[in-house]
Structure prediction request, 550 residues.
Amino acid sequence: MSNSPKRIYIVLLILALIVNFAGLNAGFFTDDPGLYASIAKNIVKKSDWLQLFTYNTDWLDKPHFPFWMAALSFKVFGISAWAYRLPALLFFCLSLLYTWLFVRKYYGKDSAFIAVLILATAEHIIISNIDTRAEPYLMALVIGSIYHISQYKNKGTLKHFILAALLTACAIMTKGLFVVVAIYGALLGQMIAEKQFLKLFSGKWLLLYLCTVVFTLPEFYALYVQFDLYPKKLVFGRYNVSGIRWFLWDSQFGRFANNGPIHQKKSGDPFFFLHTMLWTFLPWCLMFYFAVYKNVAKLIRKISLPEYYTFAGGMLLLLLFSLSRFQLPFYTNILFPLFAIMMAPYMLSALTRSEERLRNAFLLIFAIALPLIIIAVHILLRPASSLLFIVDVMLFGALIIWLIKQQILSALKVFACTCCAALFGNFYMNTVFFLKMASYNSQIQAANFINQPLFANANIYSLRQSNNSFQFYCKKPVNYIGLEDFGKFSPKGKSIFYASQASLDQLRNESAQFTIIATFVDYPQENILPKFINYKARQQVLSKAYLITK
Prediction:
């Protein structure tokens, strides 16, 4: 590798890390981070690391590992939005490291840098690092497990045995058993390609499976303590709910079959992820489809691939997601390290003239379109200050000029400029746009209002279980009172309730008695509506929220 490409890779990687960390302390602008952060906060407040609670009631929806990581961060750094995001961002960095190690082993250093940059600049990866759920953890745990399994297969050392089992167990304790499809689906594909399928049942591998189960026991124990030990608890509207059964079946297979106790959906689109990735995997989506085509063509012609882990694991779980009727855009994030690895060799390699033209077109479309879109968004958004936008333009404009002047392969120039376009767009999103959205989150405003000493002795309630940013940012415990129970509820002492406009309208329709304490402007959407972007039409999609008392 020459010094010039290496210097370019390092500069782009440093900027990618800056962009991904730029939204570390932004306010929450969707509900799930508020929920997960609130659950982690309750772990710390209650000093109970086995049981998960929201609004002081038992919660059974996700396994424990991400909450343990966030709670550990809260213990060290205090309770804040940035402390919630920090461990997830560190796991994101770990996913970059494991991607580097895996690609360097099978494809070389140039491809390793390319794969890491693809992963660090993919649209939904950067969004998920600010709108933090479980995906940053899963990315690191899945690619890390596959890396150590591949090393254990070849070397059989104790280090890789322990780490393969531990990371797989942590992945299971993050999302459930379905992650095994990607991890061991990758191994299965490799063993089939090498005609060693039966060796998967040898003592070497059976011992790894057993060790993985042992490392997963903390999850089983925590679920047993909170649910199986107390069959009279009311969960999902019924009694005798087993947390262990939920973990083994309902949380994953129930969703796949669409007959679980929560989150059912009426239908699913088998092509959902194929078209959703057109934006979630920007600006690399078209090259991903090209890489899949090239790999399938090689398999048909019986041309050996350098490895089969990534293609087998990534395609198998993508197929399973597509067959499921429960589909959300961020599900494929955990597969992006595998997809980046599949794509990396085709970014700089010599192709036919027509394929090279196609590759340039696939990348330049986004290299040109993304900056233009961001400029248009800024003009329509009209934030209070344009300073960060100007910094964004100057920094990445200078970087593009520098890249064009470098004496490097034209393919690398196109790739690097596409990285710059993605980073330009997402720096703006993380430092300007999402902060603008968060400024219209009335739950944060209301919580800050409640945190005044004036309300130190008040009891705080939410009228909906989806008011989780309010729950997190409020320094006092927040309990839940359903709208249907508000009229007959007799509070003890001073009590304050957070109510959205829809909640307040329902209370008025029911002739409930209440007094409004404070009113806040609210953007009651998680989706980015065009009218919100346009400052002239923004008022049409804004609402109000209230603090009320009885």
Remarks:
- Residues 458 and 493 are 7 Å apart (CA to CA).
